[in-house]
Model the fold of this input.
Amino acid sequence: MKIRRRLPEATIPTAPFGAAAFLLFLLVVATGMISSPGGVGVAFRSAAEAAALPPEDANTVHVKVLSEAEALIEGRRVPRDAWRDGLRRAIVERRRPVVALYADPGAPFEAVLAMLVVSAGDPAKPESAPGIAIATRAQVQDYRKRYGRDPFEATP
Done:
């Protein structure tokens, strides 16, 4: 009986294909995340609309985040667990509401972010989300000079 020598079989290296498939998978996942309509439905107003905060604007809801657990909504102190209800009450009668958001210098970032999420409204109904204008310190100072009061301070 004659023993045949086995010739080495040619193999295709699969490691580069695995790496390419993994990169393609990551590309598809990242593209899907970026293009999905989900998430917080925040509709920011244009710079021209948010530049001034006129006191006669009946559609503006003034919100100032004071601390981790408290905010001023239309001049009334509201604890964090009631932010959603307080904002909903302030928005309900306005035709095209704009939430003018201002953060106290001592307010933590997480509290401001939580108020942004609350301000965005129901993610299932993005068309009903109010516009959001984030007021800068310079805008608030300009408002004080023009109108003699701070729109974000508590009402007596």
About this structure: The helical segments are 15-35, 47-50, 83-91, 109-119, 137-147.
